[in-house]
Design brief:
This protein is about 60% helix and about 0% strand. By secondary structure, it is mainly α. It has one domain (about 5-290). The chain is globular and about 50 Å long.
């Protein structure tokens, strides 16, 4: 199996031109006001995690991680909080918020690196891997706008702000594909090369079934979790995950989305933004109180 760096960046090397280089201060001060994230996006969180972990270097980085405090299966509520808070900070945070979160995540990421026995090479600070994760987060934002938000929000200007999903960590701004068209080429090329082995697939199916939740809860909603997670996944990922998806399931998923969209659009803005607005508030509270963020 090839290394994570190759699989995470091979398509990127073919893209030209790249986005302009920024200083760290410019990246931390960038605006994300066009990336409004509907709170209901959290429902697609498992699908987005699966896309991220489908890259072998990212998947094994999580599967072999020695950072128990961030283990989804051991601390699901904490892991959910830190992931959603990261999105809130990346999109709506101040420069100080982003700096604080980067330091906190960096402390955890320092322990995430491959060993001699790892099937693939990985390092959580590898910007090529961070690019892939950021690309998945941005792709998820686009999908949520189409399903539950405003499809006209998918503009080139909003795409440029999407770089925040990577630059809030260590990804240099100039690694972000220069245009949406370049991004699509990077995405298509990387997805076509993904190879999910049995070890990672087993972990990802467990995530799809919400098996990281307490057993009574996952028993009750596991089938629903698998249904909606499979529905949110692009077809290429369903195939690589060996997940079946029938026309009847698609019709049910479309009905589910129409109902959810109708409800979401009638909510007042603070409720539409929940829980992201709550996690941003909580992050700032933790920073002020000197409490850990991750």
């Amino acid at each position: 199996m090839t290394s994570g760096t190759v699989e995470g960046s091979s398509a990127l090397s073919d893209l030209s031109p790249q986005a302009p280089a920024w200083t760290r201060e410019q990246a931390d001060s960038a605006q994300g006001d066009l990336l409004e994230m509907p709170g209901i996006s959290a429902l697609a969180g498992a699908a987005n995690v699966i896309m991220q972990l489908a890259l072998p270097a990212v998947g094994y980085g999580v599967a072999e991680s020695r950072v128990d405090s961030g283990n989804l299966f051991k601390h699901p509520l904490k892991r959910g909080r830190t992931t959603l808070a990261y999105l809130a900070v990346a999109v709506n945070g101040s420069p100080d918020d982003r700096k604080a979160y980067r330091r906190a995540v960096g402390h955890s990421h320092a322990q995430v690196r491959s060993t001699d026995s790892s099937p693939v090479k990985y390092n959580a600070f590898d910007p090529a891997l961070q690019l892939w994760v950021a690309a998945c987060l941005y792709k998820g934002w686009e999908d949520m706008q189409v399903l539950y938000g405003d499809p006209t929000a998918l503009t080139e200007e909003a795409y440029q702000q999407g770089a925040l999903m990577g630059t809030t960590l260590q990804m240099p701004r100039d690694m972000w594909p220069a245009t949406r068209a370049d991004f699509q080429r990077y995405w298509d090329s990387t997805v076509s090369e993904l190879d999910i082995d049995d070890t990672i697939r087993e972990m990802l199916v467990s995530i799809a079934k919400f098996e990281f939740l307490p057993k009574p809860v996952s028993f009750l909603i596991g089938d629903f979790g698998l249904f909606v997670t499979t529905g949110f996944l692009p077809q290429e990922f369903r195939e690589k995950m060996l997940l079946t998806w029938t026309p009847r399931q698609q019709r049910l998923f479309d009905l589910h989305n129409r109902i959810v969209r109708t409800v979401v659009q009638r909510l007042p803005k603070p409720l539409r933004a929940f829980p992201f607005n709550a996690y941003l508030w909580d992050t700032r509270r933790r920073i002020k109180a000197g409490k850990p963020l991750t």
